[in-house]
């Protein structure tokens, strides 16, 4: 038995490495600062001046929390860490904006087997860049080292965010009416859902490696799979400022049908015309390489649509123009009908209902 006394370092926790990681991330966190943020990184809690909410008649706080799932393992294998931060912000803040809320601030949690300061800083860099794209502040976070539970290169990320919306501008199912149009906004790829299926298909079934060049992608498999999730927060808020919006739907796990159904009220039916767009090559690849049935793809992946907006017909032109001005590929994908009402258009999918 060793006569040397036990220590935190001997147990696998490197406090100095953690401190180094904090120093490296400070410059990136600073870039997310909003006027309402008080203090700086390093405190026990992030501070946000709530007096800024006095301009609201009845402010409602919106909160969400999420992670990135098994996509983090691909980042680990490729040694690319900043894009995962974009994914995390998108998963959290695009849930918050669905109700019409403006993203205010976010916190993150990074769990690692061993602190590699540069890696942790790269993850936070990506989170900070994502926060800038979402218009929110990164007010704090936690890096936890879990030796013995995670391998030295293993890690996971999670985040929580808060936004605010005026009560009488809250978006959702109660605003939706028959005749409303459903506008689809293109995804940047797989985003951050369905990666357990994707990994099973490309690695276990197809036996491919991340450095495999895929002609349909014009890049490697790994580069395609790590494409950052598009952050729609400011695009959605721009729509609410320029025209009338009844609801948004963030297309994440569960696919188009399940997520659109979450904002469609009882008695109404959302009909989406699948002939109005062609999903990207990555969706065909997953389907063909794994011989995945179309229904399984539809209920697992976003199929090329990352966000949907439900707007009255008179708002369609302004909505599409606003999104085009912001560089968002968008189109009319369907509409809202009475339940039981029939449509005859080719490619109409009637099971996208609440």
Automatic annotation (TrEMBL):
This is Phosphoribosylformylglycinamidine cyclo-ligase. Residues 57-165 form the PurM-like N-terminal domain. It comes from the Bacteria. GO terms for cellular component: cytosol. Pathway: Purine metabolism; IMP biosynthesis via de novo pathway; 5-amino-1-(5-phospho-D-ribosyl)imidazole from N(2)-formyl-N(1)-(5-phospho-D-ribosyl)glycinamide: step 2/2. It catalyses: 2-formamido-N(1)-(5-O-phospho-beta-D-ribosyl)acetamidine + ATP = 5-amino-1-(5-phospho-beta-D-ribosyl)imidazole + ADP + phosphate + H(+). Residues 178-342 form the PurM-like C-terminal domain.
């Amino acid at each position: 038995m060793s006569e040397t006394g036990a220590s935190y370092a001997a147990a696998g926790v490197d406090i100095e490495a953690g401190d180094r990681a904090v120093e490296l991330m400070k410059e990136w966190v600073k870039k997310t600062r909003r006027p309402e943020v008080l203090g700086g990184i390093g405190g026990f809690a992030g501070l946000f001046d709530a007096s800024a909410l006095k301009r609201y008649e009845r402010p409602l706080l919106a909160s969400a929390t999420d992670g990135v799932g098994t996509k983090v393992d691909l980042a680990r294998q490729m040694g690319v860490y900043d894009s995962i931060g974009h994914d995390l912000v998108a998963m959290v803040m695009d849930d918050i904006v669905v109700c019409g809320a403006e993203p205010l601030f976010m916190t993150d949690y990074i769990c690692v087997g061993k602190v590699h300061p540069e890696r942790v800083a790269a993850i936070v860099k990506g989170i900070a860049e994502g926060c800038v794209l979402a218009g929110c502040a990164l007010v704090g976070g936690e890096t936890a080292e879990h030796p013995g539970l995670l391998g030295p290169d293993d890690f996971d990320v999670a985040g929580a965010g808060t936004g605010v919306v005026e009560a009488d501008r809250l978006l959702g199912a109660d605003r939706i009416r028959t005749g409303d149009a459903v506008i689809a906004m293109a995804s940047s790829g797989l985003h951050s859902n369905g990666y357990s299926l994707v990994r099973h298909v490309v690695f276990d079934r197809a036996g491919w490696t991340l450095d495999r060049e895929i002609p349909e992608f014009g890049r490697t498999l790994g580069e395609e799979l790590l494409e950052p999730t598009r952050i729609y927060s400011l695009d959605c808020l721009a729509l609410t400022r320029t025209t009338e919006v009844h609801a948004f739907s963030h297309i994440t796990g569960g696919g188009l049908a399940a997520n659109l159904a979450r904002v469609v009220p009882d008695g109404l039916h959302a009909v989406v015309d699948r002939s109005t767009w062609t999903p990207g090559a990555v969706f065909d690849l997953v389907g063909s390489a794994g011989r995945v049935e179309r229904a399984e793809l539809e209920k697992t992946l976003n199929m090329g649509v990352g966000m949907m907006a439900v707007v009255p017909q008179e708002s369609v032109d302004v909505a599409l123009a606003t999104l085009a001005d912001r560089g968002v590929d968008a189109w009319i994908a369907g509409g809202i009908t009475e339940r039981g009402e029939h449509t005859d258009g080719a490619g109409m999918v009637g099971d996208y209902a609440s």
